[in-house]
Amino acid sequence: MSTAIIPFAGTYEIDRTHSSVQFAVKHIVSTFRASFDEIEGRLVGGDSGTTLTASARVESVSIVDPPEFREHVVRGDDFFAADVHPELTFRSTGVELREDGSAVVEGELTVRGITRPVTAEGSYRAPTQDPFGTVRAALALHASVDRRGWGLSWQLPLPDGGDAVGWEVELTAELELVEAV
User: Fold this and answer.
1) 72 vs 40, 48, 52, 63, 133, CA distance in Å?
2) pTM to 2 decimals?
3) pLDDT by residue (tens digit) across 59-115?
4) Whole-angstrom Cα distance, residue 34 to residue 21?
């Protein structure tokens, strides 16, 4: 059994250029994927443990065309309602980084003003210096959530009786972290 360790000491900011936050959901016969371009956050490690906070601007979702679909997802009451809730936020309540490089992060995800618990699993890479003298680390996480828990309840029945959009949403965060100076 792996034991918890604390490989991070200090504060690390999310490198927006080299990080991504994505979601994927079943759409009729395939999987629809989108990401958020404007993300920020930090990981703080010390003797009392490790914390992770992050946020994403809803307006920065990668959906472009058709414009009416983007508008429905970004501003619609059935989806993100960005005019009232412009950000998605995450705050960890527990971060377990194991000797084998695996990670479990428990926390609270807020979407549309609704906060619910989420557990994400994945891996981490302990801090290392890049060729330019910057200390970098990485955290790769994934979780599956039921979108109805956050009031994302739009649905359209298909002729065969199925649903146009899946209820389960896969969340993925690939975070490259830079030591704050």
Assistant:
1) 24, 43, 30, 11, 44
2) 0.91
3) 999 999 999 999 999 999 999 999 999 999 999 999 999 999 999 999 999 999 999
4) 9
Domains and CATH numbers, the chain: 4-179 (2.40.128.110)
pLDDT tens by residue, 139-170: 999 999 999 999 999 999 999 999 999 999 99
Own/partner long-range contacts of 79-85 (Cβ < 8 Å, ≥24 apart)? 79/152, 79/154, 80/111, 80/112, 80/152, 81/112, 82/58, 84/112, 84/113, 85/58, 85/111, 85/112, 85/113
Helix (H, G, I), strand (E, B) or coil at 69: helix
Listed residue (69, 66, 26, 41) closest to 139, CA to CA: 41
Distance (Å, rounded) from C-alpha 69 to C-alpha 45?
A: 41
- For 73, the 3-state DSSP assignment is helix
Phi-psi region of 112 (alpha: psi -120 to 50; beta: other; left: phi over 0): left
